Amino acid sequence: MKPRCSELSHVMGLLGAVVLGLVGIARADIPGYEKSEFMVSMRDGVRLHTLVYRPVKQEGSLPIMLMRTPYGIAGGAPRSLDDYLKDLADEGYIFAFQDIRGRYKSEGVFVTIRPPRGTAEAKAIDEGTDAFDTIDWLVKNLKGNSGRVGMLGISYPGWLTVMALLEPHPALKAASPQAPPADMFLGDDFHNNGTFRLSYGFEYAAMIETLKENSHCFKNGHKIMVQIQSTWFPLIDRNPQTYVPNIFKTEARDFRPATQCVFRSPGHSSYIEMSIIGK
């Protein structure tokens, strides 16, 4: 089977100045925007990869829209400005996208749904402190911003938006957490009607914790578990095998061919077992 892969900073007052690494500034792949790429130190020295898109014809100061994600920003960020975020783009914002700690080009160690730090742990970090540090750097270092920041996200990025609200930066004026996984024991992700979905739980953990730069990767020798169930999720779905900002607006070029194999052995034959409900 052929491999198929889909593919800053507040420093506490006592610590002094911000440490900034500028990777580059270039014309963005979305017309009308200038793209800047930064690696910026957080309060513990870990640097997070951030892309900033600023309107080329900016007039006056603009608010900043921040989105943080574990799923990679390099491919989806520019396309979202012309799709998912188009209405906001038309209104006029500076957009900032960030790979969270330990994912893709960001440094540090990734922890799935990282627990919030204790209030007595002044030097501890969590997704809330990373969001705080990010906002602090943005308003202090991006030219032409109004000092007002908004955040939004869906699913995991929605949860990251919630974490930013625990100890919010004063510049964070609006937040829209959409469908965040607030309780892993409810809903149809890790649990279905109260029952733990072992296959999905394993698949997601393997997807997000075993690879730093690829969210999905199937290679030679990998085995795939086939799960069939009668509830609405998951339905049989066309997986584009690449990041798209809006699954309902995929294009033909987003879909890549993939081969799936079912493996068996003399001692472990492949089969499907299901209960039969009588009339």
> Termini, distance in Å?
42 Å
User: Looking at CATH, which topology of the domain at 8-178 would you report?
Assistant: Rossmann fold
User: What is the CA-atom radius of gyration, in angstroms?
Assistant: 21 Å
Task: State the low-pLDDT regions, or none.
Answer: 1-28, 228-237
Shape: globular
Tell me which CATH architecture of the domain at 8-178 applies here.
3-Layer(aba) Sandwich
Strand order of the largest sheet: 2-3-4-6-5-7-8
Strand content: 15-25%
Structural class by sheet pairing and helices: alpha/beta
What share of residues is helical?
10-25%
CATH superfamily of the domain at 8-178: Alpha/Beta hydrolase fold, catalytic domain
Count helical runs: 5
The biggest beta sheet, please? Answer: 7 strands, mixed
By DSSP, the count of extended strands is: 11
Mean pLDDT: 76
The CATH C-level class name of the domain at 8-178: Alpha Beta
